[in-house]
Every structure is written in C-alpha cells, then in structure tokens.
Specification:
Layout: H1 5-9, E1 12-13, E2 16-17, H2 25-39, H3 48-70, H4 79-91, H5 96-115, H6 123-171, H7 177-183, E3 191-197, H8 211-230, E4 235-239, E5 242-248, H9 257-268, E6 273-279, H10 284-300, E7 307-309, H11 310-319, H12 324-331, H13 340-351, H14 356-363, H15 367-381, H16 388-405
Parallel strand pairs: 6-7
Antiparallel strand pairs: 1-2, 3-5, 3-6, 4-5
Helix pairs in contact: 2-3, 3-4, 3-6, 4-6, 5-6, 8-9, 10-11, 12-16, 13-15, 14-15
Length: 410
C-alpha cells in the first residue's frame, strides 16, 4: 500500500474526490453484479441465491474498501467478511479463478468510472490512484486466496480423517455401511489389498539433511501418486515405511497392479515392494494379514522389489510355515554354519538363476572360485547344487533357514 501524503489526504479528479463515482455503494454494487452476470461467463452458472446474496454483499464490501482507501483512510475491517464469503464459496465448489476474475472485472469497471472525467491536470492523481488499485487488488486477492487455501486444507483434513476411519474399520472387520455413508465414500465390491514396504530414501541418512523431512516428502509423493492413479477411491493407511492400501479392482485391475507399484516407486524415488491379495470387503481383514505375511516373507528372502502375489510365492510360503518340515529343511545347511562364504555363494548363485559368471562378478571372485565353492557345498551337505534334486533341496533349505534364524524381515 502507498503511504505518501497524497494517499492519506485523499485523491481528487477534476477537483472532486476520486471516490465520488463509487460512493453510492449500493447502486454501484448492483450495477457491478449485473455486469458480472452479463460479461463474466462462468458467473452465469452460479446459483441465483448465491449471486443475490454473497456476491452482492462482497461486492459492496470491496467497494467500501476501495472508497476508504481512495479517500486516504486506513483499510477498514472488511477483509474478514470477504474471507468468510470466500471460504463459503470454496465449500460450495465455486472455482477460485471465477472469483478472482470477477474481482479484476469489478476493478476494471470501477476504474473506468473513476477516470471518466479525468484531464491532463489529473495525471499525478491518476498515477497515485493506479498504485492504490494495485494495493487494493493485492489485499483482496490475497484475502480470497488465503481463505480458499485454508478451506481446502480443512476439507482435505476431513477427507483424510474419513478415509483413515473407514480404512481402519474395513481392516478391523467392523460394519462399514453406515460409516461409508457418513464419510461419503463408496465401498467397492472387491479390493486389491496391498501391503507396501517403502525403503529409506538415501537422503534420509544424509548427515546434512533432516531425515524426517525427507521421509515425509517421500510419503507425500507416494500419496499424491496414489490419488492421481486411483482418485479418491483408494483407501490407505501409510507411514514413511509403508502400510496398507485398498485399491478397488474396478479402478485398477489385477493386471495393472504391477504398473501401479512401478509408478509408486517412481514417485517415492526408491523401489517399493508390494504384496497383493484380492478380497471382498468382508474378507479384507484376513487378506491384509496374508498380504503382510507374504510381504514379510519376500523381505526376509531378500527378493527384488516389485509386486508379489501368492501365486508367485506359494512354494516359498508353504516352506516357511512353522513345523517339523521347516526345521528339518533348515538343518540341511548346518554343515555350512562354519563356512559363511559358502552360504553366501549358494544364496547368491541361486538368486542369480545359477549364472556363475554373474555370481562371480557380484561377489568379486573368479568363476572358478564359484565352481570350487559349489563343489565344497556338495561335499559338506551331501547335496549337489549342480543337480536338479540337490538344487531344489538346497534352495528349500535356504528359505526354511531364513525363517528359523530371523524373527523379523530384513
């Protein structure tokens, strides 16, 4: 806002106060509202009671603000009414661009009225008046924008709370029909229940950065990508490390879940691992338990990131169930307990689909050393990793041993 002497004592045009053409606030506001309806095309789509009520009232408030500033007075406490009205428009879904466009249209019409009788001798006053117009636009536009942003945050917060409540109810096996109506969220006929593991971003461990801030930004990117791909139909309980997401299969088909996980990984800037189980709403609690069991197993076995289903890992899942079978399989590798390099070679070799060159490269050893170690494994365990039966037993033993020795995923 300008603070020179001219603005404090009021501006004049042709010997009269510059505010004169605007001082009949009620009449001018009616004319402006009529102009909005005729010339500002989006305004024609607004409900009649909104135009007759809030729009007319706020137009009058803005005119009073303009008259006060042109006359050199301080800004009156009018912005509170404007902020309240703007928040109401935001709740009713009136786009902010319509509001701001109407404000600028009103200023253009008002400025035309003010300068219509100006002469060359009024040049200095017109320049000061133009500066005041910019200041008024700044005040009014900022007030509207803040009100819209504040209301948007409130709406997002309410929706987030509703989603959290409904998701928790589904995962807890509670009745959700009434809750869904209260939240305004439809329950899908079938969900893909995704258990997600989101690893740390490298910057979370950077000594010069705030790891918590980096982690929260990672989470927000994942949530934004999920909203982009699934709209508001996906229900999620996520933290910076992962969580559970319920995706309606009508929105993202089972065949497209892999692409969704890839997109979430790209948004997170780290490779996301997911386990998926399809379920009806009533089956969601059990499906979530199975999905997280599968995810836990995938992490323990140090599988590559991506999407996993029970059909992909049924054998591994069965081998990891507690019982004498798992204990017996795990014991097959006891002869290697004092030879960690042999265990590492076996796991790496199996993980590389028996590609000895790749195993040697990853372990930084010669391919002949890989052959030697495999032969040594065969001598100690009695199981030949180069033969089909021996390989099958050794791989099963590795899976069982992973669960016998470790209580939590890697």
């Amino acid at each position: 806002m300008t603070t020179d002497g001219a603005s404090r004592v009021g501006l004049t045009v042709s010997g009269r106060p510059m505010s004169t053409p605007l001082q009949d606030v009620r009449a001018v506001s009616r004319q402006l509202v009529g102009h909005f309806v005729d010339k500002v095309i989006p305004c024609r789509t607004l409900p009649g009671d909104l135009i007759a009520g809030d729009v007319t009232t706020v137009t009058r408030v803005c005119l009073e603000l303009a008259v006060s500033m042109l006359d050199g007075g301080d800004i009156p406490e009018k912005t509170g009414k404007l902020a309240d009205a703007a928040a109401g428009w935001a709740r009713e879904g009136v786009p902010i661009d319509i509001v701001l466009h109407s404000i600028h249209e009103g200023f253009q019409v008002g400025l035309d009225r003010v300068v219509s009788t100006a002469t060359v001798r009024d040049y200095d006053s017109i320049v000061d008046g133009a500066k005041l117009v910019v200041s008024m636009l700044d005040t009014i536009s900022a007030t509207v924008a803040r009100a819209y942003v504040r209301e948007h945050k409130a709406v997002v917060g309410e929706h987030h709370t509703a989603v959290h409540t409904l998701t928790s109810a589904l995962l807890g096996g509670k009745s959700t029909s009434t809750m869904a109506r209260e939240c305004g969220i439809d329950i899908a006929a079938e969900y893909a229940v995704l258990a997600l593991a989101i690893p740390q971003h490298p910057d979370e461990r950077h000594p010069m950065l705030d790891g918590k801030v980096v982690a929260r930004r990672k989470l927000r990117r994942v949530q934004a990508e999920l909203a982009t791909r699934c709209g508001e139909s996906a229900l999620a309980l996520l933290s910076v490390d992962g969580g559970t997401v319920l995706v309606p299969t009508a929105v993202v088909s089972d065949e497209r879940l892999g692409s969704l996980v890839t997109q979430l990984s790209a948004a997170a800037h780290v490779p996301v691992t997911a386990a998926a189980v399809l379920a009806t709403p009533a089956e969601v609690p059990d499906a979530a338990d199975r999905a997280h069991e599968l995810l836990d197993m995938v992490q323990r076995l140090e599988c590559v990131p991506g999407l996993y289903r029970f059909t992909d890992m049924a054998l591994e899942y069965q081998l990891t169930r507690p019982g004498p079978g798992r204990e017996t399989l795990g014991s097959l590798l006891e002869p290697l307990a004092d030879h960690p390099e042999l265990l590492e070679t076996l796991q790496c070799h199996i993980g590389n689909n028996l590609n000895r060159q790749r195993t040697a490269r990853l372990m930084h050893i010669h391919a002949n050393t890989v052959d030697y170690r495999l032969k040594k494994i065969s001598q100690l365990t009695g199981l030949d990793p180069t033969a089909t039966m021996g390989l099958w037993q050794l791989r099963s033993a590795l899976i069982a041993r992973t669960f016998n020795e470790h209580k939590s995923p890697a």
